[in-house]
Amino acid sequence: MEQTYFRRGFGLRESIEGALAVDYHSRLVDVIRGRGSELSIGDLTFKLAREFGFCYGVDRAVEYAYETRTKFPDRRLFLVGEIIHNPHVNAKLRDMGVQCLRHPEGTDFDFTGITPDDVVILPAFGVTVRDFERLRAIGCVLVDTTCGSVLNVWKRVDAYARDGFTAVIHGKYYHEETKATASQVTKYAGGRYLIVRDMAEADAVCGYIEGRGERAALLKQFAEKSSAGFDPDRDLVHVGVANQTTMLANESLAIADRVRDSMATRYGEAALDQHFRNFDTICSATQDRQDAVLKLIADPIDLMIVIGGYNSSNTTHLAAICQERVVTYHIEDATCIAPETAEIRFRPVGARDETRRAGWLPAGPVRIGVTAGASTPNNKIGETIERIAATRGVSLDADL
User: Fold this and answer.
1) 275 alpha-carbon distance from chain centroid
2) Which of 35, 41, 127, 307 could form a disulfide with 131 if both were Cys (CB 3.0 to 4.6 A apart)?
3) What is residue 1's predicted lDDT score, i.e. its pLDDT?
4) Is 48 exposed, middle or buried (0-12, 13-18, 19+ CB in 10 A)?
């Protein structure tokens, strides 16, 4: 019988290394790293964060997708949603013949056209329990690229539900990873979850735990962010905290502390273990990139460039961190910079839409910090630096 579930790769890295290098490598980024993560040219000084770009989980997912195309050259390949939140990586997969499955907001993925002869790739974010079971029922080959850090969160949430604890998840309720994480509780009868986006929402929940707030108001506020039949009087008695791996690390820790304090207030320190659980489920790569950008902006920087998909959670959080200290431009890729007109197209922190700004690059010596989300390949970072230099009329090729 043919094996239909794969999670550990196919051992084909040697056969895809060339394609990965062509699609994602940057000589310029390698040169800058080799110079202590700093490059001065003309009156511009570029300073790279020590940690940026592809993390291990993303690197593995992309590599595994390329291996899958090589392993099954004659089969139809599908991808549930996006492999990661980077438009260029997903476009490369489409060019390789991988069909991306989509679904309108609030509806299920349409798997009706998939047959047992097809191969389906599960993204780095993972998929919901229901979608996984639907695909297994079809009998198609599944290639699972779910990040190990995400799986670690799933194990915690699974344990909460198994022991009768409601999972309070710090995350974005509409994000693929959080949907997949929340779905883990559905494997147990009576499994419950509640998703909080930020400290303000956590405060609303904690206020209710402490005896403040109205039941109807809380249920309305979290109608789309809680499990079916959620009852705060029943389901906030025993809670365990977890998080979407790409959230702001400090905020996740603060929310966990806030919930803990509320449970201690309500039930007493002596009984806390019976009512509250918490495990550190913060992704090390997310933490490393946030720490690196904090260290970078601690030094004098005139402006920050943050590169990555606008729907990338970890990238938007890097931009938010930078914006607190320095003028920050979150761009999706190098095409957002127009050397001919000296304009930049970017999405301001907290905004939904892009905006344009002329004269964004100040005259005189400028120190430019550069970082990128965990789903941004190095070539997109290198291309961005080249276009910034071109805005000054400088070609990097002649100087490297």
Assistant:
1) 30
2) 127
3) 66
4) buried
Q: How far apart are CA 27 and CA 32, in angstroms?
A: 9
Separation of alpha carbons 141 and 205, rounded Å:
42
Q: Identify which of 258, 259, 252 has the alpha carbon closest to the alpha carbon of residue 280.
A: 252
Determine contact, residues 383/333, Cβ cutoff 8 Å.
yes
> CA geometry: angle at 358 spanning 319 and 294, to 5°?
20
Q: Left if phi > 0, otherwise alpha if psi is -120 to 50, otherwise beta: which for 254? A: alpha
> Quick check: 376 and 54 in contact, CB under 8 A?
yes
pLDDT value of residue 283: 87
Domain architecture of the chain: domains with CATH: 10-55+285-399 (3.40.1010.20), 56-147 (3.40.50.11270), 149-282 (3.40.1010.20)
**Buried b or exposed e, range 193-207, using 16+ CB within 10 angstroms:** bbbbbeeebbbbbbe
Are the CB atoms for 80 and 146 separated by under 8 Å? Answer: no
Of 204, 238, 199, 209, the residue nearest 221 (C-alpha):
204
Contact in structure between 168 and 186 (CB atoms under 8 Å): no
Q: How far apart are CA 233 and CA 208, in angstroms?
A: 9
Taking the CA atoms of 164, 167, 173 and 177 in sequence, report the sign of the dihedral they define. Answer: negative
- Taking alpha carbons only, the member of 236, 357, 314, 383 closest to residue 52 is 314
pLDDT digits (tens, 9 = 90+) for 280-319: 778 888 999 999 999 999 999 999 999 999 999 999 999 9
Which residue type sits at 34? Answer: G
Tens of pLDDT, residue by residue over 18-72, are: 999 999 999 999 999 999 999 999 999 999 999 999 999 999 999 999 999 999 9
Residues in Cβ contact with 298 at an 8 Å cutoff, skipping those fewer than 6 apart? none
- Tell me whether residue 176 is one of the annotated catalytic residues: no
Q: What per-residue confidence (pLDDT) applies to 400?
A: 66
Phi-psi label, residue 256: left if phi above 0, alpha if psi -120 to 50, beta otherwise: alpha
The residues of the chain scoring below 50 in pLDDT are none
- Minimal CA–CA distance to 250: which of 193, 317, 304? 317
Do 311 and 281 contact (CB within 8 A), yes or no?
Answer: no
